[in-house]
Design goal:
2 domains; 321 residues; Glutamyl-tRNA Synthetase, domain 3; globular; Rossmann fold; 12 helices; alpha/beta
């Protein structure tokens, strides 16, 4: 049985644009929780989406992390260099009869369900309660779906608390391999985390529902699921989650505008309730404050989220010292 000092987490940014303050919040807290508990911290670039990954984006992400003082153990892992490993996992699932080809999108399947069928028998049960998917006439590359059996998955999330979902009913047979010849997110993250020995996954709670699908994959691949920590999201004043399209408020833009890393860290410390005012902080001080926290204590200010990134916060960052 692993002790706390034997545990491993990973930082897993997607180099599909510049990191924003929501990314900084999640990455810094992930790192601080790990370092405060003496875990290993691995770094993985989730760079499988060729349509969105631009040349140089990964290097900018690495520079942002160095600027903030976020370090990691061992080399950087790149998902794009591991296609054959994912293919092995797909073949294992195929050997267990837990996948099938399906060229239809979710919308097409839902439309097929609501329309009268001219050719009964050309469709099989798939999405959700074995909703329908095409099995004949598939020509060329196609998606592969995972046969997701119905049944409730119970998760005790360290931060979000008890969570239960039946992914077989709510999501159905989800895509694990795309017609572009690369693994979909759910398969890639499970294979990578299992291979890297990740014991604790810390990420935004927009991915909480993904954990149930991932547990199903862990079960079928006969791998232990990690402990889950899902953090509140950072939102703007209208309650919208931050996105990489907000380029003027990305870390690179702040860095190039002369904003100090200490200001970014201080703002995140304020969001956590570590301090009660706008104040720059060194990353070492942030880590000391993080080490004093009970991260699972209900009612903690940063757990009651979402966290709001206000115009006042932005203006303070941009103020000249």
């Amino acid at each position: 049985m692993k002790t706390e000092h034997d545990r491993t987490t990973r930082l897993a940014p997607s180099p599909t644009g510049r990191l924003h303050m929501g990314n900084a919040w999640a990455l810094l807290l992930n790192w601080a929780i790990a370092r405060a508990n003496h875990w290993r911290v691995l770094l993985r670039m989730e760079d499988l989406d060729d349509s969105r990954v631009r040349e140089g984006d990964a290097e900018v992400v690495l520079e942002d992390l160095r600027w903030l003082g976020i370090d990691h153990d061992g080399p950087v892992h790149y998902q794009s260099r591991r296609i054959e490993r994912y293919r092995e996992a797909l073949q294992s699932l195929q050997a267990l009869d837990r996948t099938y080809a399906c060229s239809l999108s979710r919308r097409q399947i839902e439309e097929a369900l609501s329309a009268p069928h001219e050719h009964p028998g050309t469709i099989v049960a798939s999405l959700g309660r074995r909703h329908e998917a095409e099995t004949t006439g598939v020509d060329g590359p196609t998606n592969q779906r995972f046969v997701c059996e119905e049944g409730v998955v119970h998760i005790e999330d360290v931060i979000a608390g008890s969570y239960s979902e039946d992914p077989g009913s709510t999501v159905g047979d989800f895509i694990i391999w795309t017609k572009q010849g690369v693994p979909a997110y759910q398969l890639a993250v499970v294979v990578e985390d299992a291979d890297m020995g990740v014991t604790d996954v810390i990420r935004g709670n927009d991915l909480l529902s993904s954990s149930a699908r991932q547990v199903r994959l862990y079960e079928v691949l006969d791998k232990p699921a990690p402990r889950w920590w899902h953090l509140p999201l950072v939102v703007d004043q209208e309650g919208r989650r931050l996105a990489k399209r907000h380029g003027d408020r990305c870390l690179e833009a702040y860095r190039q505008s002369g904003v100090s890393a200490q200001k970014i860290i201080g703002l995140i410390a304020r969001w956590c309730g570590f301090i009660d005012r706008h104040e720059p902080l060194d990353v070492e001080v942030f880590l000391q404050l993080a080490a004093c926290q009970d991260w699972t204590k209900s009612g903690s200010s940063f757990l009651s989220g979402p966290v709001m990134f206000t115009e006042e916060d932005h203006q303070w960052l941009m103020e000249r010292s």
